[in-house]
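Worked example 4.2. Below are the chains of a multi-component assembly; read each line carefully before continuing.
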Amino acid sequence: MTARTLLDKLWMSHEIIRRDDGASLLWVDRHLVHEGSHHAFAKLEARGAGVAEPGLTFGVVDHYAPTRGRPERPEIARMIATLERNTAAHGITCFGLDDPRQGIVHVIGPEQGLTLPGLLINCGDSHTSTHGAFGALAFGIGATEVAHVLATQTIWQKKPAAMRIRFTGRLGPGVGAKDMALCWIAKLGADGARGHAIEYTGEAVRALSMEGRMTLCNLSIEGGARFGMIAPDAATFAHVKGRPFAPEGNVWDDAVAIWSTLPSDPDAAFAREVTLDASDIAPIVTWGTSPEDALPVTATVPDPDRAPATQAARVRAALDYMGLFAGQPLSEIAVDQVFIGSCTNARIEDLRAAAAVLAGRRARVPGLVSPGSQQVKAQAEAEGLDRIFMEAGLEWVGAGCSMCVAMNGDMVPPGKRCASTTNRNFRGRQGRGARTHLMSPAMVAAAAITGHLTDVRPMLAGRSAA
Amino acid sequence: MSGWTRHEGKAVALDRESIDTDQLIPARFMSTPRSEGYGPFLLHDLRFDAEGTPVETFPLNRVSEATVLITRRNFGSGSSREAAVYALVDFGIRAVIAPSFGDIFASNAVNNGLLPAQVDAGVVDALIAEVPDTGTPARINLADGTARIGGRSITFEIDPIWREKLINGWDDIDLTHRHADAIATDRADRARRSPWAFPSGEGHQTTA
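Applying the procedure described above to all two chains together yields the following structure tokens:
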């Protein structure tokens, strides 16, 4: 039998039919919806259609979730109420603001055991590849596709090409999954993996916790890939077992047997292969307005005059927007504020990593720490992490997308510079005129303490980095 | 959605790389119902200054009734927000010509009748050099994948699946309902063979 990739196996097990033109109709095991689904529900309503599988559909309030008290503007309250009304009308379970299971969709799916190896998971959000960390086929879709999944529990897709990114060796101290992701995106470009489904492999990937694997898969779209995945292993199964919606008893045993067959066959062929040495990766920060504008914190701001001809104009425009000049050491860039949160880096391990740096130290700049879910918040508080953040002078707030997407009122003021654990340094992403530098939670903690972008590694001396 | 095969309109060049969906429509506008129209939000923070005054030098502000956008690589990268496509479509744009597109954006575009026409970077270089600030006449033929922009004839790439969909204006939900029996059989098999793939009862019993 032909050797198959993880992608092949997941695709085959979900393909209902394939048209002559190559489009596959795929079964959707889980459909997660947030406030942005209002367009899709309106489309359903317009055609008088119902939801095919309310039991496989789950709603959660995250994009507009207030992190401090109640919604500050009527249109925000309306977005949340609309989701709650739409899900209730169709018999869909919704984790609303008062539900202890509420949080960012890509945090709560795995947390609740809704995310499992071997599933196909859709959500109207480009960071849905996060769930690929469990060996699931997970990808973001637009509103028309959301309406289609609601109406049919299926989706049309053309199979992407398989791409393998292998990280050999081991990460050094103070370096994590965020640095791995920014490293490959900087190398291949923000559209470097366009049209591909990435499988991340290698010793450094195996060594990552499930939280780290989620961070790595989460950022796939920032390198152009709609799909990112990691083959499931014992760590995956241990993480899933016992979660509220996860299988139990004999069904669990059967599931593990099936999940164990998912990893790519040893001689499976990939359309594209990239190998990176994890031991070479230093803590990385972004300097521009695309996630590909990323360099080790020990580097200097690039010179547009020395950039490739095709890049010079973009680099110049990015530096102009960011208020930076060529040759400036990255570690001398002063920040106005910090943000720790988002579907990329707001899980318990991320908060522990930031707290390990902040413990017993004071932040020089203000900042917000928004846990990825109410459960992460409770766990962090049980571990005393909230006290570390607050004693450092940072604000400890509620769970949601918050300042990553700046929809709920949490935003970076015009012209201000933010060291952020989020996923996009696009112009205006964190607010009109906001200047975002992406980095890991430990690196954001370091920037908070010094007031400028900083190599966190020396600050970890004598501490156990989480 | 109605299909289309030929388009005649006006092209404008936007000499920028990586115009992401956050630029196409800033997040703060996305709570607006579609029925109100998304055209005014298109590239809002590039088209208008902080006081809301149009930026005179911005290409879309110099051309009235632009329908074809010529731009650089990685157009529509970023978020899955279909609102980015709504903003383009409601503004009157029917086609975007670029060397590459964000995967989710391109899929959303086709679902709304907007053509993501992929061309070599060299073609975009030439067009950007040629197209005047005031725009230039543009003709597009979806059937054979050709276009004439000003005096230049070009060919573009589009996945054949998407080409068919744009030409026919297909509605996927209607198409899929034709496969209702296959879906029902698949679902029944799945429930029998893979009970683990359905959410367990315990989670459902947990109530807030």
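Take a moment to check your reading of the output against the notes. Chain A has a mean pLDDT of 97. Residues 186 and 292 of chain A are 4 Å apart (CA to CA).
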